[in-house]
């Protein structure tokens, strides 16, 4: 493994290179996952697009057309949870990755890895959820593949969705484009997806059933772009939560972010569950929310556009970009104190998506 | 499961609907896999592109550009085998699916599912093989994703590659386009990939080491198109082998195919291994071959173009399309007898790719 550290001039943010085997945290939204990309996949693939700041989808110029392209594999456990299942999660997740580049989804693929012995009714339910989710988001599943592995070599099913989308002329959104003075918006309550999965998995009830927020955000982004054409950056805060998204954008844009923690919408049951489990809601995954970096002059219009949409009703302005402390996200707590907000190292919660 | 059989007017070619659980054969290139698509995925997804004849990649008109799009998950066991590994297999396989629509590959994605505890050196070797294969085929891996599952919930790693390609104006290739009078060409020796995997897995040596034929066919298809612009159909005979490809095209085009079995290039060690194991080489998977349906007038030019290319040196004309026995493939044996060539039901050999 010595030679995977040869990427010219690049240095790991944390010296974890001694890791000789894959750990669960490599699949999280934290530093371990980034290290795997930067130390292993980048040198192996040698692709400029991958070497750029991490983004939800890549934008390519193909035959004069601007295409967004993205892929995600889904291994969520359990397959069904309050608010959704692996099927709609996989469709919505890939649509959202396209939407975060400002792209209108055009078509999706579905690649299944099935475990021998899987109940056909389970697969049918998952496939129907995928078809319904695609229809709901006005897109289509146009190509697919099925592999089967022996009993014990998967658990139930895994699914990969890849997607292509069209990016309109003039739309330039990227994690490296946030600028001092930008306002930071989130489109609604955070933490619901992670807590929903956790509550099913742990068997712990938190008084009320918390449902995953899984939703397709293509339409929301279209409305947002109409109201605030100068959006600088968009991110869907999935693995690693809002904290990871903010830290990635702060690093990619070399700006500081001040987060007004009191303004972040955290539903009471999510706060209670996180308190009980010792988690920070900022680190918990979402599957139907976005964070937007918008020039101050368009922030109110952007907020109104988000709030007018069914998937953005709970939107709020939660922070500001500064030229102080580049690369660092600082939270102002309700009591007026400040703290540095970090990305998690690995994952608090494996198999969240 | 009752309602998955409601696809309007469609009837399964074989009444296997009583299957209530996934079996290994659903992942093969045979009838069980087709049934899964037709009885379950089609009604669930409701997509016209999927309902069309099965094809290696779908062609979409996007913003005035003709794009091919495809996906494949790879679960080959073992990860490394003579002639390649899961990494180059995944890159070449997706490039080939694009090439079978006449597309020039533009970009690929890579979605990994890793097992906790996987040796980082193994992942590194696979990723480097992917990077090298992409470079060899003049394409790029531009986006990716990594998930990790707990020990015992995968074996080593699975990888999905999806791809997009550009289809030139005037190129119209599809499994439903074969016409009576077309000549059938294969680009070289068949059966090598399947026998290579089988020999590693069974520990059986067949005198000489048979290597997988894994190779990217984009360049070969470009040469073929230049020599024979009227190619009607192309297929890479992977799971299910040459027999499955021929049967699918015969069915989709509603034509008969007469295969001159003596003309099919089967290397001696492949024939010996198949004889020993009771397999028909026509059913064994290939990963670097194509079968082409070309109008008679262009067949010799097509053959010459194939033979001039490093990946087509062993090309041969192996059959003819007829308007007799539509949907049926008939083999003429070296002794002058004829037999019906069928698709396998499931898979002789699971986890071949």
Report on this model:
Two copies of one chain form a homodimer. Chain A has 353 residues and is α+β, with helices and mostly antiparallel strands. Among the domains of chain A are: 1-51, no CATH class; 183-341, Alpha-Beta Complex (Phosphoribosyl-aminoimidazole Synthetase, Chain A, domain 2), CATH 3.90.650. The first copy, chain A, is 30% helix and 24% strand. Chain A is built from nine helices and 14 strands. In chain A, the strands form three sheets. A seven-stranded mixed sheet of chain A has the order 9-11-8-12-10-13-14. In chain A, strand 3 (80-81) and strand 4 (84-85) form a beta hairpin. Chain A is globular. In chain A, 60% of the residues are buried. Chains A and B meet through helix 1, strand 1, strand 2, strand 5 and helix 4 of A and helix 1, strand 1, strand 2, strand 5 and helix 4 of B.
Brief digest:
Chains A, B: Belongs to the HypE family. The structure is a homodimer of 353-residue chains. Helices cover 30% and strands 24% of the residues of chain A.
